[in-house]
Design a protein that fits this description.
Length: about 130
C-alpha cells in the first residue's frame, strides 16, 4: 500500500471522493469537487494517483472508472500509527490523553461508554494467555 503522506491537498480531495463512493469516473469526481478544475486536469490528476499506486481503473462503456487500491480504513490506520509514533513516541496513552484533553472536541456519554468498553476489552485481552 502506498503512503498518502505525500499527497497534495487536491490529490487527497480526489482520494476522499473515490473512497466515499467506492469508485468514480472523471465526470463523477469533477461533479463532486467543490471548486472543480477542468475535465482534462481531473483526468490528468487521476492518472498521477494511479501511477503513484493509489488508484487502479477499469473501463466501462468507453470510460475509465477509478477504484482505490487500499480501503480508506487501512490508509487511516497506517496514518494514525505514523502520528502516534512520530508525535507521541508510540504511546497510545499519550495520544488518547491529548485527544481527550482537547478543548475543541467533546465526547458524548455514548462515546465515553463505548471507549470504556474498549478499554475493558483491551484489559481482558492482555490477561488472556
Amino acid at each position: 500500500m502506498q503512503s498518502t503522506e505525500k499527497l497534495s491537498r487536491r490529490e487527497r480531495q480526489f482520494m476522499d471522493i473515490i473512497w466515499e463512493r467506492g469508485q468514480a469516473s472523471v465526470a463523477e469526481v469533477l461533479e463532486a469537487l467543490p471548486d472543480p478544475p477542468g475535465y482534462n486536469t481531473v483526468r490528468a490528476l487521476l492518472g498521477v494517483l494511479e501511477r503513484k499506486g493509489h488508484l487502479t481503473h477499469t473501463e466501462e462503456d468507453g470510460r475509465y472508472v477509478y477504484l482505490p487500491v487500499a480501503p480508506a480504513h487501512a490508509v487511516a490506520k497506517t496514518a494514525l500509527e505514523r502520528v502516534v509514533t512520530t508525535f507521541f513516541g508510540g504511546s497510545i496513552e499519550r495520544t488518547v490523553m491529548t485527544l481527550l484533553q482537547s478543548r475543541e472536541r467533546h465526547l458524548s456519554d455514548d462515546e465515553l461508554t463505548r471507549l470504556s468498553a474498549l478499554i475493558a476489552e483491551a484489559k481482558e485481552s492482555e490477561k488472556a494467555p
